[in-house]
Write a structure and sequence with these properties.
Layout: E1 9-13, H1 18-29, E2 33-38, H2 41-51, E3 54-57, H3 63-77, E4 82-85, H4 100-128, E5 131-136, H5 149-169, E6 174-181, H6 193-201, H7 211-222, E7 233-236
Parallel strand pairs: 1-2, 1-4, 2-3, 4-5, 5-6, 6-7
Helix pairs in contact: 1-7, 3-4, 4-5
Length: 251
């Protein structure tokens, strides 16, 4: 790999699986010093150790825990260069039947988790005059799916919040962007061959992505190569939001 993260201090949340794990591994491979955070302590610590990263158990829905994560990194390393607020939960309950517990958890993790991480990192980065924040949203934030009203809403909120933060932090030398992944074969997808076959079939590009393909988008947004990119939502979804494919049999 390269050295695009050489000498950079990086936090990745939700790092125990899926896109977070792939992002952590890529950042380490690119020379970064990575602190991985996840609510799941045992798998998170083992996965981080295997990748060459430090691990801190963190529930991103807890603002105090996020503040401790960020302040601890700054105390140990003297600064924070990149904050990847990736932790998220997925849910697909129909609107009428959606339980409050599911909605509350999505607010806490998907929306407030991204906000708490952006706020804590933004304070540090604004004071040091530099930094990059990347928040994981979803193409569902701009292309909602039936039966997933609040999940789509939570990701739309992340995109809007991040754009507003980008405007506020730009004069202080801090960039804020979002990555909106499409369908990927992560821990959120049931290991059912027939279901996975369907997922492959509905992607214009012909297959559902591996999380590592999405991680490259986060790497770009976090890197100095994107030093003039802020307030942007980078969609990496194999063409899913580009438009509809042809209807077979239509004239």
């Amino acid at each position: 790999m390269g050295n695009r993260m050489q000498d950079k201090i990086i936090i990745v949340t939700g790092a125990a699986s899926g896109l977070g794990k792939a992002t952590m591994e890529l950042m380490v491979a690119e020379g970064g010093t990575v602190v991985a955070a996840d609510v799941n302590a045992d798998p998170g610590a083992a996965i981080a150790a295997a990748a060459g990263a430090e691990f801190v158990q963190t529930d991103v829905a807890d603002s105090a825990a996020v503040d401790r994560l960020v302040s601890g990194v700054v105390e140990r390393y003297g600064r924070l260069d990149v904050m990847v607020n990736n932790a998220g939960v997925f849910g697909g309950s129909p609107l009428i039947d959606a339980p409050n517990e599911e909605v509350d958890r999505m607010v806490g993790v998907n929306i407030l988790g991204a906000f708490y991480g952006t706020r804590a990192a933004g304070r540090v980065m604004a004071a040091q005059g530099s930094g990059a924040i990347v928040n994981t949203a979803s193409n569902g934030g701009s292309l909602p799916t039936e039966g997933m009203a609040f999940y789509s809403g939570s990701k739309a909120a992340v995109i809007g919040m991040s754009k507003a933060c980008a405007i506020e932090l730009a004069p202080k030398g801090v960039r804020v962007n979002t990555l909106s992944p499409g369908t990927m074969l992560s821990g959120m997808v049931p290991p059912d061959p027939e279901f996975i076959k369907v997922l492959h079939g509905i992607q214009p590009i012909g297959y559902a992505a591996d999380p590592a393909q999405m991680a490259t988008g986060i790497l770009y947004l976090a890197s100095d190569e994107a030093d003039y990119v802020t307030g942007h939502d980078l969609v990496v979804d194999g063409g899913a939001t580009a438009g509809r494919t042809a209807i077979k049999g239509a004239k």
